[in-house]
Amino acid sequence: MGSNALRPGLPGLLRAGRLKAEPGADAEPAASLWLWMARATSQGRNWARILSTVLFGLATLELLSALEVIGKDGVAQAFFAALTWLSGLAAVWLLWRPASSAFFRRCRQAALTRQP
Description:
By secondary structure, the chain is mainly alpha-helical. It has a domain at 46-116. It has five helices and no strands.
C-alpha cells in the first residue's frame, strides 16, 4: 500500500489521474454558483441556504485536498482554497444565525399568503 494512487478519497483520485485538477479551472463556475446562491438567499429562498451549505462542504474537501498536496508549487492553491473556505464559513455562519432563520421564515409565510 505504498502507492498514493491506492489511497481513498479525493486527493488519491487526483494523484491517480482519475480526476483532472487544474488550478483555477473551476473558479468561474464556483463563483457563479456562489453569486447565484447570494441572489437566491437575498430573495428568501431556503433551498439556496441549504445548497450554500453543501457548496461549503465541497470547499472544505477542496481545502483538504489542497493542503494534502501542498509543496513548492501548491502554496498558492492552498492559499486560495483557504480564502474560499473562510469566505464560505462566514457565509454559512451568517445564513444559519437566528436572525437569518427568522428572515427565511417570514419570506416563506409571505409566499404562502400570496398564493391563491
